[in-house]
Amino acid sequence: xxxxxxxxxxxxxxxxxxxxxxxxxxxxxxxxxxxxxxxxxxxxxxxxxxxxxxxxxxxxxxxxxxxxxxxxxxxxxxxxxxxxxxxxxxxxxxxxxxxxxxxxxxxxxxxxxxxxxxxxxxxxxxxxxxxxxxxxxxxxxxxxxxxxxxxxxxxxxxxxxxxxxxxxxxxxxxxxxxxxxxxxxxxxxxxxxxxxxxxxxxxxxxxxxxxxxxxxxxxxxxxxxxxxxxxxxxxxxxxxxxxxxxxxxxxxxxxxxxxxxxxxxxxxxxxxxxxxxxxxxxxxxxxxxxxxxxxxxxxxxxxxxxxxxxxxxxxxxxxxxxxxxxxxxxxxxxxxxxxxxxxxxx
Length: 346
Known about the structure:
With 346 residues, the chain is of the alpha+beta class. 49% of the residues lie in helices and 16% in strands. The strands form 2 sheets. A 5-stranded antiparallel sheet has the order 4-3-2-1-5.
């Protein structure tokens, strides 16, 4: 049997077994990059949720404040309130949507950069040459993206359009359903959803700002009593104005602007009614029905010609009429068999 040297035994240090925390530290060190990436994703997700919550709360408080000042609990009923209050709600919601998109993009970009740095601190430097080459190749494409983003931000900041507005942006016409940092979504009257790049929007015709105007043009033949037609038109419009159901939708007393134009076939008489933007079409339809009934009651009959249409003049500019209703004096039974000296109305 070999005996151990007592001197060597005394000189040898006692063997120490690894503790629990040293094992945990070794495990963490082994998966340090994985835990780092997980922490970045967790913080980015929490930050996105918190910022979106804050933005939604701010938007909700602004909308609630407007409702409280207008003493209205339903946002849909707010559309019948003063126009400034409606614009505050629409603009606040649009800004909230854009801010949510911006926050999401910024957080995702920052998180990706931090994850790349966690994987390899020198990897960004090694990508410098590749990044320069890609930047030169994608420079023109990036210009379009930057143009879309900047144009979208300026349109919202300058209140050119908002969610719920009826706009004409050139390529499409419809109700704004969403405004993103690069794309604006419009829903047309036939239900088509249009995706329009913000950078491609060169002009915006907003039919929901300020006020609207119903333009009703009647082509009256030379044989008709123009004064009588004007009186009939104005009486029908004033009856609509005095109706309690329509008084809140019409902003000013209807007016007859007289003879708008003279053609070889007829005289064009114009009736105008200033309305709220969201009530223009309803007022125009009701006014046509009442005018038809009034003309029938006074002895006039409407021929089968294009119907009068409504047009918006939100900035004070009145566009020309695009169609008209021809009104002819109803002939008696005696003249029905005898040609009129003035000839038939066109």
